[in-house]
Amino acid sequence: MAYQKVNADQRAPGHSQYLDNDDLQATALDLEWDMEKELEEPGFDQFQLDSAENQNLGHSETTDLNLDSIQPATSPKGRFQRLQEESDYISHYTRSAPKSNRCNFCHLLKILCTAIIVFIFGILIGYYIHTNCPSDSPSSGTVDHQLYQEILKTIQAEDIKKSFRNLVQLYKSEDDMEVSKKIKTQWTSLGLEDVQFVNYSVLLNLPGLSPSTVTLSSSGECFHPDGQPCSEEARKESSQDLLYSYAAYSAKGTLKAEVIDVSYGMADDLKRIRKMKNVTNRIALLKLGKLPLLYKLSLLEKAGFGGVLLYIDPCDLPKTVNPSHDIFMVPLNPGGDPSTPGYPSVDGSFRQSQSNLTSLLVQPISASLVAKLISSPKARTKNDVCSPLQLPNNEIRVVSLQVQTVTKLKTVTNVVGYVMGLTSPDRYIIVGSHHHTAHSYNGQEWASSTAIITAFIRALMPKVKRGWRPDRTIVFCSWGGTAFGNIGSYEWGEDFKTVLQKNVVAYINLHSPIRGNSTLRPVASPSLQQLVVEKNNFNCTRRTQCPETNISSIQIQGDADYFINHLGVPSVQFAYEDIKTLEGPSFLSEALFSTQSTTVEEMDPFFKLHETITKLSGEVILQIANEPVLPFNALDIALEVQNNLKGDQPNTHQLLAMASRLRESAELFQSDEMRPANDPKERAPIRIRMLNDILQDMEKSFLVQQVPPGFYRNILYHLDERTGQFSILVEAWEHCKPLATDETLQEALSKVLNSINSAHVYFKAGLDVFKSVLDGKN
């Protein structure tokens, strides 16, 4: 009993009335001592409850009592929530809750109700703002795919057809500014931003006032390149296209010499011929195809030839094509303005005084003229079996070759416009087509190219006008001077090289989209092949026939050249081909015919193929421009390198070991960095930016400084689909066959080895950077 009194005395005066009632109860216990055993436990329980209540309300300290069983504020859910959930928390006590507790409960209930109302009101406001205001955050993959389809479904074949026909009517103008102005006006009307002309004054090699001629010394007969006699009447009957049957940047003059048949001009052909004849200052009869023309001319020039009659053997073309009288043009320019090699043709630039890029007199001629030179009336014999054109070994033909060209400074015009990116405006996806250039002929392929790029702009801009933008900037370019060696694209690239080296993400090539109608032939960098496969498979699901498409990295014609070979930019091209043409020799597309044996509208009368190319290219453009992580595959580059080293190739053991290390580092990079970044929860902006910077520069490791003429500096690209090895190694093996030394081969092997090692170091450095960043955060 004394214990109770001491505790009662320790209570601070001025406490609540419940404390006073306890004191009265303790006094009553003193008066009724005989009831001590009956009242002691209830009194203690009551004291415990009151002590807990006063501890909560008055924050008094009680250190000598064990109150663990009724602590009210230890729940992580909060005191009021626990009181709500544990209904028997207070009700198990026999004494009813005091009045102040009921008031406290009501007060907390009011607070809870107010909080719930404010919370619900906040949700309503947030929902209203979200539904009425556009969000700048990246969309999910599903939303992006729906967006792409909304854009692409507006592309219609009929619109492309109208645009194509309007363009074809303009190309006959001698001034290409008319075509350029038409393109600029159309792009501007569609809403493209800051469409402008970018002009360069360049050195063009043009045909002379009269056509070149070939005269037979034995009979004195004179022929034009198409095989027609040199009489005035025959020239009047022929069109002006006769003038454009020439090799741009060839040497000019007259050469009278024996004609020596060198077939395709391969290393083995020249080795065989040089053993039999003196070839110095002779005229080579050369077939186009199998290897780049510039490379074959370099071999002939080194061997000592003085001139070249260039032709296409009818046996190398599909049976449906009869090019016997067709004349064509070839550019001998590796790229850009020949008077300013390696730097842009801007005002004040020093110009080198060279009008020709080879010492050879080069003249393209028709198959019918070749047949007259070798005294063979037909190239095809009985049973429709084609006999290749060939000069008999025991016969001598002497001709007089006259080549006439004129070199002039002319203005080449590029048309450039863009859609500015939202989150990464300093990263560019370049989409390139080309337009007709005066003083040349490109058939109708340029009109297809321009109509397709315009159709995509037409589909894209309505979304842009409604507020949507891609994450990265899309730059649209229509190049001029393509027929003379991709001059417009080279000069623009050299002009903005410092910016482009750092900022260009990909190049989409629309050079010649319709070259046939039987098979779709995509060409892509190794890092982009997986993306192209996905898009092609999706397109196949919408067609009745879906043959397996072979996607490869091979050398292609057109303005992608500078971006692939000087900037190391991943590229993509979709084009329809004639499958029979693909079965023939490669590099026949180097010839630019004045008139196509089959027009574009004959190959694609309803322009459905144009529509397919536009949609496939458009979806690739949108995905590269809008995906948070660039859709490039690092591991595919390593696999491509290993595939290039397969087969019975000498001296490649070091290359194989280095390729294996490259694959290991690429696999580690793919699994440790790329896969986590594809998870939206892991997409930290700094991490994504670092990753994309690594992805866009992967191919730069495979640029080599010196390659044979006509070969790609980017060694990831093959010569053709039949060649599965590194092109510079193939050339080195062929070159070393007739030689006792293997210095050329060792040099080529060293270049490939250094490229593979550079890529391996590049991936390892990327992994180290990510590791350092993560360690710094920890």
Task: Describe the 3D structure.
It contains 26 helices and 19 strands. With 778 residues, it is of the alpha/beta class. It has a 7-stranded mixed sheet, with helices on both faces. Strands 3-2-10-5-6-7-9 form a 7-stranded mixed sheet, with helices on both faces. A 3-stranded mixed sheet has the order 4-8-19, with no helix packed on it. Helix 7 (141-152) packs antiparallel against helix 21 (608-626) and helix 8 crosses helix 14. The longest helix is centred in the last third of the chain and has 35 residues, at 743-777. The radius of gyration is 40 Å and the shape is globular. It is found in: Membrane.
Topology diagram in text:
Blueprint: H1 2-10, H2 17-31, H3 36-58, H4 79-85, H5 88-91, H6 99-132, H7 141-152, H8 157-168, H9 177-189, E1 193-207, E2 213-216, E3 222-223, H10 232-237, E4 247-248, E5 253-263, H11 267-276, E6 283-287, H12 293-303, E7 307-311, E8 328-331, E9 361-364, H13 367-373, E10 397-403, E11 405-419, E12 424-434, H14 445-465, E13 472-479, H15 487-495, H16 497-503, E14 504-509, E15 519-520, E16 523-524, H17 529-540, H18 560-565, E17 571-573, E18 576-577, H19 579-582, E19 592-593, H20 600-603, H21 608-626, H22 634-644, H23 653-677, H24 685-696, H25 727-736, H26 743-777
Parallel strand pairs: 4-8, 5-6, 6-7, 7-9, 12-13, 12-14, 14-17
Antiparallel strand pairs: 1-11, 2-3, 2-10, 5-10, 8-19, 11-13, 15-18, 16-17
Helix pairs in contact: 2-3, 7-21, 8-14, 14-21, 17-21, 22-23, 23-26, 24-26, 25-26
Biased composition (Polar residues): 58-74
GO cellular component, one term: membrane
Subcellular location: Membrane
